[in-house]
Design a protein that fits this description.
It is built from one helix and six strands, in the order βββββαβ. By secondary structure, the protein is mostly beta strands. Helix content is about 10%, strand content about 30%. Strand 2 and strand 3 form a beta hairpin. The strands form two sheets. A four-stranded antiparallel beta sheet has the order 1-4-5-6. It has one domain. The structure holds zinc ion (ZN). The site of zinc ion (ZN) has 8 residues, from helix 1. Zinc ion binds next to helix 1.
């Protein structure tokens, strides 16, 4: 079987991007708390970009609904 892999890293992008959680536009390189979440393998694969606020809330235990753009 293929084991799923979770990744969470800071995206060094100077382009305006939209948070997958709240939909806010932000520049990842200027938001040190923002993270690019990835889940690869298994039955589901997707990537989501979280702004600093959404990542902070989620990492402290608040469930986060992903409403914004997801990458495959
Ligand atoms: Zn957000």
């Amino acid at each position: 079987m293929t084991y799923p892999v979770l990744s969470l890293k800071h995206l060094k992008s100077d382009d305006n991007q939209r948070c997958s959680g709240c939909g806010a536009e932000f520049v990842p390189s200027e938001d040190s708390g923002s993270r690019q979440l990835g889940l690869r393998g298994g039955d589901v694969s997707f990537g989501a970009l979280l702004c600093g606020g959404c990542h902070s809330k989620w990492s402290h235990g608040t469930p986060l609904t992903l409403k914004g753009p997801l990458s495959a």
